[in-house]
Amino acid sequence: MKVKSLVLASLMSALFITGASAAELKVGYVNTQRIFRDAPAAQKAAKKLEGEFAKRDQELQRMAKQLQGLQENLEKNAVTMAESDRRAKEKEFGELSREFQRKQREFREDLNLRQNEENAAVIEKANKAIKQIAETEKYDLVLQDVVWVSPKLDITDRVIKALAEAK
Questions:
Q1: How far apart, in whole angstroms, are the C-alpha atoms of residue 75 and residue 71?
Q2: pLDDT digits (tens, 9 = 90+) for 58-99
Q3: pLDDT tens sequence across 10-19
Q4: Domains along the chain?
Q5: What is the pairing mode between strands 141-144 and 27-30?
Q6: For residue 73, how many C-alpha atoms fall within 13 Å in the half-sphere facing its CB?
């Protein structure tokens, strides 16, 4: 990250040192987080993932409720249960808990993998739109993920509009 910042700082200072050309430098900025939040392609991807993982999420919620019920039953009735019944319930709880944790971990891994795939597709489309806007409107430099930027340089709305039209 530091190397990226140094390269960018060097590039910017080199551009601004050139005098006359610096006065004509056209810079734009794109807010990547807004692209992921507001672009139709990103919203479509989010709905797709939601539908794809809804059944597994419901299964995990069902298992969590079952675990909670077993735990409450054990806590409430452990004193009055026979030793063999208590051990059987504790064993059942332990097995279900391990299965739940395994399924939850697999769910998170699969969801993260799919989110990364969908995000990559959105970024690819956004980068094409950014490049097209930059070429059409003759931008010299378009930045993403900066610490601060003047709102007048923000071209995110145009990128989102271009993505909406590109459906």
A1: 6
A2: 999 999 999 999 999 888 988 888 899 889 989 999 999 999
A3: 445 545 544 4
A4: 2-166 (3.30.910.20)
A5: parallel
A6: 15
